[in-house]
Design a protein that fits this description.
Layout lengths: L1 H30 L2 E4 L4 E6 L5 E5 L4 E5 L2 E6 L3 E3 L6 E8 L6 E2 L5 E6 L5 E9 L2 E17 L2 E17 L4 E16 L10 E10 L4 E3 L2
């Protein structure tokens, strides 16, 4: 009886140890969800040749099309427990004084990422070298020359339908939803405070980074 009891206790101890190891391994695997490889730690990008960036106020159906746009930021090599913040955009411009973005009724616009703002590039799924996710923390100051003078608006929120492709270094936002017009002053009804908005663009990184997830 005593021998049987010892064998039972031994088996229980071994099983518990094995379970603990398996749990620890599983936890470690769960933590090692995303891997970023970017030797420089920074990146810069501009619109893919032949494409435009388009902002649409979905309430008024008015849109602004930019043929020039750029973005830059940081993306640090390492392993991440979640897909949040795999890259961070710390500067972005849409159009310029020399090449503004045309809008409706002869208007023209330029926009910049608001001072101190950071757009987070977040991954939710990964397959075949393509990461799909969202952009969050968007806060953009938009300035326009309209028939009534200078329009000033602030666009905030997030953008869905984002994807990044390792092989091409392209970050694409396909009519991303989740944006809103936080404020709009003297914008001739083209943009109104509280309106929802979408954004569509394809950026190409000068030097591609690599994002993977097991």
């Amino acid at each position: 009886m005593r021998s049987t009891l010892k064998r039972a206790l031994f088996a229980t101890t071994v099983a518990a140890a094995a379970l603990g190891f398996a749990t620890t391994s599983a936890s470690a695997t769960a933590l090692a969800t995303w891997t970023v490889t970017n030797p420089s730690g920074t990146f810069s990008a501009s619109l893919k040749s032949g494409t435009v960036a388009t902002l649409v106020d979905t309430a008024t159906s008015q849109q602004v099309d930019c043929s020039t746009a750029s973005a830059s930021g940081t993306s640090t090599s390492g392993t991440y427990a979640t897909g949040t913040g795999l890259a961070k955009i710390t500067a972005a411009t849409f159009g310029s004084a020399a090449s503004p973005c045309p809008g409706p009724l002869g208007s023209s616009f330029t926009a910049v990422l608001a001072s101190g703002s950071t757009i987070s590039v977040n991954g939710s799924t990964y397959s075949g070298g393509v990461t799909k996710g969202t952009l969050s923390g968007i806060r953009v100051n938009l300035t326009g020359d309209t028939i009534l003078g200078t329009c000033k608006a602030v666009i905030t929120g997030s953008a869905s339908n984002a994807s990044y492709t390792n092989s091409t270094g392209e970050l694409k936002i396909a009519k991303g939803t989740g944006l809103k017009v936080e404020s709009a002053t003297n914008c001739s009804g083209l943009l109104n405070t509280g309106d929802a908005a979408t954004f569509d663009a394809t950026y190409k990184l000068v030097t591609p980074i690599t994002i993977t997830s097991p």
